[in-house]
Amino acid sequence: MFSNKLKPIFTNKKNLQRIGPKRDGGYIIDKRIFDKVEHIITCGLSDDWNFEKHFLKYNDKVRVIAYDHTVNSYFWIRRFFKDILHLILFKKLSLWKILNIFKYFDYIFFFTKNNKHFKTKISKKNIKNKEITINKIVKGKKNILLKIDIENTEYTILDDIIKNKKKIVFLIIEFHSIKKNLKKINKFVSQIKDLKIIHMHGNNINKIDKHGYPYALEISFINSKIIKISKKKNSQHYPILGLDYPSVRRNKDIKLLFK
Q1: DSSP string for residues in 64-119
Q2: How far is Cα 203 from Cα 93, in angstroms, rounded to an integer?
Q3: pLDDT tens digits, residue range 20-67?
Q4: Is the pTM of this model over 0.90?
Protein backbone atom coordinates (compact mmCIF):
# COMPACT_ATOMS: atom_id res chain seq x y z
CA MET A 1 0.00 0.00 0.00
CA PHE A 2 1.39 3.36 -1.07
CA SER A 3 1.24 6.72 0.65
CA ASN A 4 -1.33 9.19 -0.68
CA LYS A 5 1.64 11.43 -1.47
CA LEU A 6 2.30 9.14 -4.43
CA LYS A 7 -1.28 9.11 -5.66
CA PRO A 8 -1.58 10.76 -9.08
CA ILE A 9 -3.34 14.10 -9.34
CA PHE A 10 -6.71 14.23 -11.09
CA THR A 11 -6.26 14.20 -14.86
CA ASN A 12 -9.13 14.20 -17.33
CA LYS A 13 -9.04 10.81 -19.01
CA LYS A 14 -9.54 12.45 -22.42
CA ASN A 15 -6.04 13.99 -22.03
CA LEU A 16 -4.39 10.64 -21.33
CA GLN A 17 -3.02 8.43 -24.07
CA ARG A 18 -0.98 5.26 -24.16
CA ILE A 19 2.16 5.56 -26.26
CA GLY A 20 3.98 2.38 -27.20
CA PRO A 21 2.79 -1.24 -27.11
CA LYS A 22 0.00 -2.74 -24.99
CA ARG A 23 2.62 -4.51 -22.88
CA ASP A 24 5.95 -3.66 -21.25
CA GLY A 25 7.41 -0.59 -22.94
CA GLY A 26 4.12 1.27 -23.29
CA TYR A 27 3.51 4.30 -21.05
CA ILE A 28 0.73 6.78 -20.34
CA ILE A 29 1.33 10.41 -21.30
CA ASP A 30 -0.74 13.58 -21.42
CA LYS A 31 -1.41 14.23 -25.12
CA ARG A 32 -1.09 17.99 -24.53
CA ILE A 33 2.70 17.55 -24.46
CA PHE A 34 2.98 16.46 -28.10
CA ASP A 35 3.71 19.95 -29.40
CA LYS A 36 5.77 20.95 -26.35
CA VAL A 37 8.52 18.32 -26.54
CA GLU A 38 11.71 18.96 -28.55
CA HIS A 39 13.86 16.07 -27.32
CA ILE A 40 13.11 12.56 -26.10
CA ILE A 41 16.00 11.35 -23.97
CA THR A 42 15.76 7.62 -23.36
CA CYS A 43 17.90 6.08 -20.64
CA GLY A 44 17.72 2.31 -21.04
CA LEU A 45 16.85 1.02 -24.50
CA SER A 46 17.34 -2.75 -24.89
CA ASP A 47 15.50 -3.84 -28.07
CA ASP A 48 12.37 -1.72 -27.66
CA TRP A 49 11.96 1.78 -29.12
CA ASN A 50 8.26 1.43 -29.92
CA PHE A 51 7.40 4.24 -27.52
CA GLU A 52 9.72 6.62 -29.34
CA LYS A 53 8.48 5.56 -32.80
CA HIS A 54 4.86 6.00 -31.72
CA PHE A 55 5.50 9.46 -30.25
CA LEU A 56 7.13 10.64 -33.48
CA LYS A 57 3.88 9.93 -35.33
CA TYR A 58 2.40 12.88 -33.42
CA ASN A 59 5.44 15.14 -33.65
CA ASP A 60 8.08 14.14 -36.18
CA LYS A 61 10.25 17.14 -35.33
CA VAL A 62 11.26 15.61 -32.01
CA ARG A 63 14.81 14.29 -31.76
CA VAL A 64 15.37 10.96 -29.96
CA ILE A 65 18.63 10.47 -28.06
CA ALA A 66 19.06 7.09 -26.37
CA TYR A 67 21.69 5.80 -23.95
CA ASP A 68 22.28 2.11 -23.23
CA HIS A 69 25.74 0.60 -22.86
CA THR A 70 24.40 -2.96 -23.06
CA VAL A 71 23.09 -2.65 -26.63
CA ASN A 72 26.20 -3.49 -28.63
CA SER A 73 27.31 -5.98 -31.30
CA TYR A 74 27.34 -8.86 -28.82
CA PHE A 75 23.78 -7.97 -27.77
CA TRP A 76 22.49 -8.25 -31.33
CA ILE A 77 24.39 -11.47 -32.18
CA ARG A 78 23.16 -13.16 -29.01
CA ARG A 79 19.60 -11.97 -29.63
CA PHE A 80 19.60 -13.23 -33.23
CA PHE A 81 20.72 -16.77 -32.37
CA LYS A 82 18.41 -16.90 -29.36
CA ASP A 83 15.41 -16.08 -31.57
CA ILE A 84 16.47 -18.64 -34.20
CA LEU A 85 16.83 -21.33 -31.52
CA HIS A 86 13.43 -20.44 -30.09
CA LEU A 87 11.77 -20.92 -33.50
CA ILE A 88 13.52 -24.26 -34.04
CA LEU A 89 12.55 -25.62 -30.63
CA PHE A 90 8.96 -24.39 -30.43
CA LYS A 91 8.16 -24.24 -34.16
CA LYS A 92 5.55 -21.54 -33.59
CA LEU A 93 5.90 -19.42 -36.67
CA SER A 94 4.18 -16.08 -37.03
CA LEU A 95 4.92 -13.02 -39.13
CA TRP A 96 5.70 -11.01 -35.99
CA LYS A 97 8.20 -13.58 -34.69
CA ILE A 98 9.94 -13.84 -38.05
CA LEU A 99 10.22 -10.05 -38.41
CA ASN A 100 11.38 -9.78 -34.80
CA ILE A 101 14.47 -11.84 -35.65
CA PHE A 102 15.58 -9.01 -37.93
CA LYS A 103 14.93 -6.25 -35.38
CA TYR A 104 18.51 -5.07 -35.87
CA PHE A 105 17.61 -3.60 -39.26
CA ASP A 106 14.79 -1.60 -37.67
CA TYR A 107 17.33 -0.39 -35.11
CA ILE A 108 19.72 0.76 -37.84
CA PHE A 109 16.93 2.47 -39.73
CA PHE A 110 15.50 4.29 -36.69
CA PHE A 111 18.76 5.45 -35.12
CA THR A 112 20.07 7.33 -38.09
CA LYS A 113 20.24 10.99 -39.05
CA ASN A 114 18.16 12.80 -36.41
CA ASN A 115 17.92 9.99 -33.82
CA LYS A 116 21.01 8.71 -32.02
CA HIS A 117 21.90 5.82 -29.72
CA PHE A 118 25.02 6.10 -27.57
CA LYS A 119 26.56 2.97 -26.05
CA THR A 120 27.18 4.85 -22.83
CA LYS A 121 26.14 4.06 -19.27
CA ILE A 122 24.05 6.55 -17.28
CA SER A 123 25.98 7.38 -14.12
CA LYS A 124 26.81 9.95 -11.45
CA LYS A 125 30.16 10.47 -13.19
CA ASN A 126 31.36 11.53 -16.64
CA ILE A 127 33.89 9.01 -17.95
CA LYS A 128 34.71 9.55 -21.61
CA ASN A 129 33.00 7.02 -23.91
CA LYS A 130 31.93 4.92 -20.89
CA GLU A 131 29.67 6.82 -18.49
CA ILE A 132 27.68 10.04 -18.67
CA THR A 133 25.59 12.09 -16.25
CA ILE A 134 22.10 13.50 -16.69
CA ASN A 135 23.63 16.97 -16.21
CA LYS A 136 25.78 16.53 -19.30
CA ILE A 137 23.04 14.88 -21.36
CA VAL A 138 20.55 17.74 -20.92
CA LYS A 139 23.09 20.56 -21.18
CA GLY A 140 21.98 23.05 -23.84
CA LYS A 141 18.61 21.35 -24.25
CA LYS A 142 15.08 22.26 -23.17
CA ASN A 143 11.52 20.91 -23.46
CA ILE A 144 12.63 17.36 -22.74
CA LEU A 145 10.69 14.14 -22.37
CA LEU A 146 12.97 12.09 -20.13
CA LYS A 147 12.31 8.33 -20.02
CA ILE A 148 14.28 6.18 -17.58
CA ASP A 149 14.40 2.41 -17.17
CA ILE A 150 17.88 1.46 -16.00
CA GLU A 151 17.29 -1.38 -13.53
CA ASN A 152 17.93 0.15 -10.07
CA THR A 153 20.55 2.65 -11.30
CA GLU A 154 17.76 5.27 -11.35
CA TYR A 155 18.31 5.90 -7.64
CA THR A 156 21.84 7.17 -8.26
CA ILE A 157 20.69 9.93 -10.63
CA LEU A 158 17.62 11.32 -8.86
CA ASP A 159 19.50 14.38 -7.59
CA ASP A 160 20.57 15.24 -11.14
CA ILE A 161 16.97 14.97 -12.35
CA ILE A 162 15.86 17.36 -9.60
CA LYS A 163 18.58 19.85 -10.59
CA ASN A 164 17.32 19.86 -14.19
CA LYS A 165 13.57 19.67 -13.54
CA LYS A 166 12.84 23.00 -15.27
CA LYS A 167 14.05 21.55 -18.59
CA ILE A 168 11.71 18.58 -18.35
CA VAL A 169 8.22 18.74 -19.86
CA PHE A 170 7.44 15.12 -19.05
CA LEU A 171 9.20 12.45 -17.01
CA ILE A 172 8.67 8.71 -17.16
CA ILE A 173 10.66 6.69 -14.68
CA GLU A 174 10.50 3.03 -13.73
CA PHE A 175 11.46 2.45 -10.12
CA HIS A 176 12.70 -0.99 -9.09
CA SER A 177 13.06 -2.79 -5.71
CA ILE A 178 10.12 -0.77 -4.39
CA LYS A 179 10.02 -1.83 -0.73
CA LYS A 180 13.74 -1.29 -0.27
CA ASN A 181 13.68 2.17 -1.88
CA LEU A 182 10.26 3.51 -0.93
CA LYS A 183 11.71 6.32 1.22
CA LYS A 184 13.91 7.44 -1.69
CA ILE A 185 10.90 7.49 -4.02
CA ASN A 186 8.80 9.52 -1.57
CA LYS A 187 11.66 11.96 -1.03
CA PHE A 188 12.17 12.38 -4.76
CA VAL A 189 8.48 13.09 -5.36
CA SER A 190 8.47 15.72 -2.60
CA GLN A 191 11.57 17.43 -4.04
CA ILE A 192 10.59 17.40 -7.72
CA LYS A 193 7.72 19.80 -6.83
CA ASP A 194 6.46 21.23 -10.16
CA LEU A 195 6.66 17.81 -11.78
CA LYS A 196 3.38 16.21 -10.72
CA ILE A 197 2.44 12.54 -10.92
CA ILE A 198 -0.39 11.97 -13.39
CA HIS A 199 -0.18 8.19 -13.71
CA MET A 200 1.20 5.04 -12.07
CA HIS A 201 1.33 1.41 -13.13
CA GLY A 202 2.78 -1.68 -11.51
CA ASN A 203 5.07 -3.86 -13.61
CA ASN A 204 3.81 -7.44 -13.20
CA ILE A 205 6.81 -9.33 -14.56
CA ASN A 206 6.92 -10.93 -11.10
CA LYS A 207 4.17 -11.36 -8.51
CA ILE A 208 3.76 -8.72 -5.83
CA ASP A 209 6.13 -9.19 -2.89
CA LYS A 210 5.09 -10.13 0.65
CA HIS A 211 4.61 -6.43 1.44
CA GLY A 212 2.15 -5.98 -1.44
CA TYR A 213 4.50 -4.08 -3.76
CA PRO A 214 5.04 -4.83 -7.46
CA TYR A 215 8.40 -5.72 -9.01
CA ALA A 216 8.64 -2.21 -10.40
CA LEU A 217 6.57 0.96 -10.47
CA GLU A 218 6.14 3.00 -13.65
CA ILE A 219 5.40 6.66 -12.86
CA SER A 220 4.56 9.50 -15.26
CA PHE A 221 5.19 13.14 -14.22
CA ILE A 222 4.09 16.32 -15.98
CA ASN A 223 5.54 19.81 -15.61
CA SER A 224 2.71 21.84 -14.10
CA LYS A 225 4.44 25.08 -15.08
CA ILE A 226 4.06 24.15 -18.75
CA ILE A 227 0.79 22.20 -18.81
CA LYS A 228 -2.15 23.39 -16.72
CA ILE A 229 -3.35 20.70 -14.34
CA SER A 230 -6.34 20.32 -12.06
CA LYS A 231 -6.26 20.54 -8.27
CA LYS A 232 -9.22 18.18 -7.90
CA LYS A 233 -8.85 15.15 -5.68
CA ASN A 234 -8.18 11.99 -7.66
CA SER A 235 -10.55 9.04 -7.12
CA GLN A 236 -9.22 7.00 -10.05
CA HIS A 237 -8.46 3.30 -9.54
CA TYR A 238 -5.30 1.79 -11.00
CA PRO A 239 -4.84 0.12 -13.43
CA ILE A 240 -7.13 2.16 -15.70
CA LEU A 241 -9.32 0.12 -18.02
CA GLY A 242 -8.57 0.85 -21.65
CA LEU A 243 -5.26 2.58 -20.91
CA ASP A 244 -3.27 0.16 -18.79
CA TYR A 245 -2.28 -3.33 -19.83
CA PRO A 246 -0.21 -5.99 -18.05
CA SER A 247 3.52 -5.65 -18.72
CA VAL A 248 3.54 -9.44 -19.06
CA ARG A 249 0.32 -10.85 -20.51
CA ARG A 250 0.54 -14.22 -18.77
CA ASN A 251 0.38 -12.52 -15.34
CA LYS A 252 -2.57 -10.65 -13.87
CA ASP A 253 -2.25 -6.87 -13.77
CA ILE A 254 -1.55 -5.29 -10.38
CA LYS A 255 -4.02 -3.15 -8.47
CA LEU A 256 -2.33 -0.22 -6.75
CA LEU A 257 -3.63 0.65 -3.30
CA PHE A 258 -3.16 3.91 -1.43
CA LYS A 259 -3.57 4.70 2.27
Answers
A1: EEEE-TT-SHHHHHHHHHHHHHHHHHH----HHHHHHHTHHHHHHHHSSTT-EEE-
A2: 28
A3: 999 999 999 999 999 999 999 999 999 999 999 999 999 999 999 999
A4: yes
